[in-house]
Specification:
mainly alpha; 4 helices
Length: 71
């Protein structure tokens, strides 16, 4: 099973390109994070990462889950 997962991942990832580019593709995001000096600075950076740059669930995401203590 692990071999199949690894083969699937390898078929989707261009490891040579990843190694060649390093952190270059995310350098703007890393610089924005490094520039955060206060909580006030964090909100716009977090909003940009959440909704524009990465499009992922950085801090929160839509959806619901069942409360394990009150099902």
């Amino acid at each position: 099973m692990d071999q199949k997962i690894g083969a699937f991942y390898g078929s989707c990832a261009d490891e040579a390109a990843v190694n060649r580019l390093g952190l270059t593709p995310i350098k703007p995001q890393l610089e924005a994070i490094a520039a955060v000096k206060s909580m006030r600075d964090m909100a716009p950076v977090l909003a940009r990462l959440q909704f524009e740059d990465l499009g992922n669930e950085i801090m929160f995401g839509p959806g619901s889950i069942q409360d394990p203590d009150n099902s």
